[in-house]
Design brief:
single chain; mainly alpha
Length: 181
């Protein structure tokens, strides 16, 4: 059992010392994931990469069990997704002029996206998860977590070739789904 897995298990069991030792081991990778995600956000976003990492880490450490490094980072990408979606929802309330829907182009993941696009992708991912949950998880890892195909494949314990096929399927499925909207 690796040190990371041991610390994840101990932190999940409530060991505060393990949680404190865990952060330095995962902070760099979490910071990279958050920086990639925040680079795609609109200028003036209230969160920065550091704040996103800290919020995600607080959601992760506690009573959740992880099956190793890949599972932890997949959960981190999902936590970042939820934080960004919650933030986008709060910014797009009707009293703030929200409620607009826009088409999202997944081929341009690095471009700046308004909050409404984050919500559009989030809603489409929920629909995809109802049909193909593993494929939706791959999109979360790539879109919200900023992972490459090989990194996402490792996290999901699949081959990069399978991840590439799932990514192509997800892009086509989401494009069709978003066109219906």
């Amino acid at each position: 059992m690796s040190d990371l897995t041991r610390l994840l298990d101990a932190a999940a069991a409530g060991d505060r010392q393990a949680a404190a030792e865990l952060l330095p081991l995962v902070y760099g990778k979490l910071r990279t994931l958050a920086a990639v995600r925040m680079a795609a956000e609109s200028p003036g976003h209230i969160l920065d990469a550091t704040a996103l990492v800290h919020e995600a880490y607080l959601k992760l450490v506690g009573d959740q069990q992880f099956d190793g490094r890949g599972h932890f980072f997949a959960a981190a990408a999902e936590a970042m997704r939820r934080i960004l979606v919650d933030h986008a929802r709060s910014r797009l309330t009707v009293k703030r002029g929200g409620g607009k829907r826009v088409a999202v182009e997944l081929d341009h993941l690095s471009q700046r996206e308004p909050d409404s696009e984050i919500l559009t992708v989030h809603e489409a991912l929920d629909r995809l998860a109802g049909v193909e949950p593993n494929v939706a998880q791959l999109v979360v890892l790539r879109y919200f977590g900023g992972l490459t195909i090989p990194e996402a494949a490792q996290s999901l314990s699949i081959s990069p070739r399978t991840a590439d096929a799932w990514w192509a399927y997800a892009r086509a499925w989401l494009a069709a789904d978003l066109d219906r909207d």
